[in-house]
Amino acid sequence: MNEKRHHILLSGYIDGELSPEEKLEFEEYMATNPDLQKELKAFNKLREVTGAMKYADIPEAVWEGYWAGLYRRMERGIGWILVSISAILFLIFGCYYLTCDFFLDPEPSIFMKIAVGAGFVGFIILLVSVIRERIFACRRDRYDEVKR
């Protein structure tokens, strides 16, 4: 019996997966090979130790904290996405109607149109500036790692 075959049969022997012929062949070879007998004892001892091991269950409180945190992050993320989409749609809707109903209407004076347009553009510039500033501050928050 060659070395490679005896390792294959050793694994099968320990796991009880050998056919009767293979089992007999392995036991005959093992009777004449003391190194293989030592290896078999070592594997059986390892199997006993690993068989007695049990996985530690994760405490229920840990799972509850995990799911609560995950739910909270998803909930907030989805909420911010929906608010952002609605704000964008509102701005598009407002710009469209402001253009159609106010700027294209010949009735208001050019001075009034410039004043409203400047106020609207100023509002958008300030809004973008504040959002950019908040994102910058959040990314560099030095207390971000501090647990509450």
Describe the protein:
This protein is mostly helical and 148 residues long. Helix content is 80%, strand content 0%. The chain has five helices and no strands. The protein has helices at residues 3-15, 20-31, 34-52, 60-103, 110-139. The model has no long low-confidence stretch (mean pLDDT 82).
Keywords:
148 residues, mainly alpha, 5 helices
Query: Can you give the mean pLDDT?
Result: 82
Strand content: under 5%
Main sheet attributes: strand count, strand direction, barrel closure: none
Element order: H for helix, E for strand: HHHHH
Count of individual beta strands: 0
Percent helix range: over 70%
Give the radius of gyration. 37 Å
Contiguous low-pLDDT stretches (5 residues minimum) are none
Overall shape: it is rod-shaped
Helix vs. strand class:
mainly alpha
Termini separation: 66 Å
Helical element count? Answer: 5
Outline of the structure:
The chain has 148 residues and is an all-alpha fold.
What is the secondary structure topology, with strand pairs?
Layout: H1 3-15, H2 20-31, H3 34-52, H4 60-103, H5 110-139
Helix pairs in contact: 1-2
